[in-house]
């Protein structure tokens, strides 16, 4: 849900060099069912369930992790590193 600028700042903070998806229009959040609505006194507020989704250069989903365990970005970084190693050894 964050802007590209916010995601870039977060990526820099955690030390990743690949782009993080910005989904301000909620298309991906809706498709992957990670956009949730929280009701407060009859008003719905939307928030995104934390999720790491790794999609390779061919558009194939290689890894999905959602919920509390997705807070640690190291798993997604490890998946990306392993995927890169596999692709360079082909």
Write structural notes for this entry.
With 90 residues, the protein is α+β, with helices and mostly antiparallel strands. The protein contains 3 helices and 4 strands. It has helices at residues 4-14, 27-31, 74-88, and strands at residues 35-40, 43-48, 51-55, 61-66. The strands form 2 sheets. Strands 1-2 form a two-stranded antiparallel ribbon. A hairpin with a 2-residue loop joins strand 1 and strand 2 (43-48). It starts with a helix and ends with a helix. The mean pLDDT is 84.
Count of helical regions: 3
Fraction in beta strands: 25-35%
Structural Rg: 15 Å
User: How helical, in percent, are the residues?
Assistant: 25-40%
Termini Cα gap: 35 Å
- Averaging pLDDT over every residue, what do you get? 84
Structural class: alpha+beta
Number of DSSP E strands: 4
Strand order of the largest sheet: 1-2
Uncertain segments of ≥5 residues (pLDDT<50)?
none
Quick one: overall form? elongated
Q: Mind summarizing the main beta sheet?
A: 2 strands, antiparallel
* Order of SSEs: HHEEEEH
Which structural traits does this protein have?
90 residues; alpha+beta; two-stranded antiparallel sheet; 3 helices; 34% helix
Précis, in short:
This protein has 90 residues and is α+β, with helices and mostly antiparallel strands.
How would the blueprint of this fold be written?
Elements lengths: L3 H11 L12 H5 L3 E6 L2 E6 L2 E5 L5 E6 L7 H15 L2
Antiparallel strand pairs: 1-2, 3-4
